[in-house]
Structures are given as C-alpha cells and as structure tokens.
C-alpha cells in the first residue's frame, strides 16, 4: 500500500505563548499519522505555522524512518520583502526538504490560492491551525471540505 500525504495550513502569525504547546501537538499528530501510513508531509513555505510544521517534520526524521517533507511553494520569489533572518530559515528548510515543487514562477495575484489548492489536491488529510474565519488558512480549510479531505484542527478549528 502506498504511503499517504498530509498537508499543513495555518496562520502566518502565531501567538508566541502558544508555540510550545502547538509544537507538541504537531509532534503528537505527525507521530500518530505516521503510524497510519502517512509518511509524506507537505508545507507551503509561509512564515508562521508552515515554518513550524516543516521544522517539526525535519526534527522527527531520525525517529520516524521514511518521513518526508515536501515543500509546495507558490513562486520562486516567495521571500521577496522578508526579513533576512526569515529568509535564512526558509533556505535552511528548503535545503533539507525531500522535494520542492513550485506552482508558479513569479508572484502573481492568486498564486497563493493556486499553491493552497495544489497542497490540498495532493493530500489525504490536512493538519490545520485555524483561529479565524478569514484569510488563506480559512480558504484552504474550506477547500479541503469541498474536496473531501479530512481536516485535523490544532487551533480553534471554527
């Protein structure tokens, strides 16, 4: 039986006081999903939850053989305008990813939605950190529902 894929979606801004508990929850869910034959985890490369999720997958690789990180990125210049320390972390993750896929070349209106749809369409479930009914994370969770992709909420879930 082929291994399954789980994508991540979540907000770019995470309350600092919630990050330790969120990281622990991510570790627990990734381990649980791994036992259910989810070996591929796909992140969109954004700041915040995507970064935390990608780093969590990378940290669990030694413990979980065959665990893979796939980056599905909206464009080559995604980090344009980011602070240097965030670009360094993005590059660190990208160098360690097992696969990097770009859904477009340069930034365009709609490129983030295209990236989000690609993440969902290639996944068997989604781990979400959703705390409000607006923005890209809400759009992605709604798209999961429309596509029949189960969503595991690590935030309020709404």
Automatic annotation (TrEMBL):
Pfam families on file: YpsA
Keyword field contains Transmembrane: yes
The keyword Amino-acid biosynthesis appears for this protein: no
InterPro entries, alphabetized: YspA
Alphabetical UniProt keywords: Membrane, Transmembrane, Transmembrane helix
Transmembrane segments: 38-60
Highest taxon listed in the record's lineage: Bacteria
PANTHER family documented for this protein: UPF0398 PROTEIN SPR0331 (PTHR38440:SF1), UPF0398 PROTEIN YPSA (PTHR38440)
Protein name: SLOG family protein
Annotated organism of origin: Solibaculum intestinale
Lineage, uppermost ranks: Bacteria, Bacillati, Bacillota, Clostridia, Eubacteriales
């Amino acid at each position: 039986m082929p291994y399954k894929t789980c994508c991540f979606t979540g907000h770019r801004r995470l309350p600092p006081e919630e990050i330790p508990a969120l990281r622990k929850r991510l570790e627990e869910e990734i381990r649980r999903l791994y036992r259910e034959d989810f070996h591929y985890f796909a992140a969109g490369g954004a700041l915040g939850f995507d970064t935390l999720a990608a780093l969590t997958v990378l940290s669990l690789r030694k413990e979980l053989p065959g665990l893979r990180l796939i980056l599905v990125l909206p464009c080559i210049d995604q980090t344009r305008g980011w602070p240097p320390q965030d670009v360094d972390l993005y590059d660190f993750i990208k160098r360690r990813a097992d696969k990097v896929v770009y859904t477009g070349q340069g930034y365009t209106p709609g490129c983030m939605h295209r990236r989000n749809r690609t993440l969902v369409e290639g996944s068997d479930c989604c781990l979400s950190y959703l705390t409000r009914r607006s923005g890209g994370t809400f759009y992605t969770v709604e798209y999961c529902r429309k596509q029949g992709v189960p969503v595991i909420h690590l935030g309020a879930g709404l």
